[in-house]
Amino acid sequence: MTDLDTLAARVHRLEQMERARGLLHEYAATVDRREVEPVVALFHRDAVLRNPRGTFTGGTEIAEAFRAAWEIEPSLKQHFVATPKLTAESDDTIAAAARFLFVGRARERSVIGWGTYDLRVDAAGSHALFRSMKITVELSTDLDAGWALDPTPV
């Protein structure tokens, strides 16, 4: 492999990683609109979604997972993606790990929470798509309950 070939391969990986980063941010903006079809369009047809409520495979199950989540927690949220770490697993598969924060408001309360995303992104086609997404919610609370640590006896 020549130096030019090596450079071209590195540029390709960096471009694919940037497409994956863009998909993450597109997801945050899209999920905040609470419209199922645009969210599902970000997933590969055989994608797997894992969240605190279970494992969902394919567009139909993923759509139902988002509908159920929005029904259970009807607050209007804004998600913020932070510190994405991207790794090229192959020419067109990007692994991503990121933290997220959300704030939201409902009729009678305000909510806040955070957690992590663990993702595999297929960056081969004309649009990057999620192949798998694991959502781990570390905290989800409202402002009245807060998020103080449990008091420890002295």
From TrEMBL:
Domain of life of the source? Bacteria
Please give the InterPro entries that the UniProt record associates with this protein: NTF2-like_dom_sf (IPR032710), SnoaL-like (IPR037401)
| Pfam families in the cross-refs | SnoaL_4
The SnoaL-like domain covers 13-120
**What protein name is recorded for this chain?**
Nuclear transport factor 2 family protein
Q: Which organism is it from?
A: Phytohabitans kaempferiae
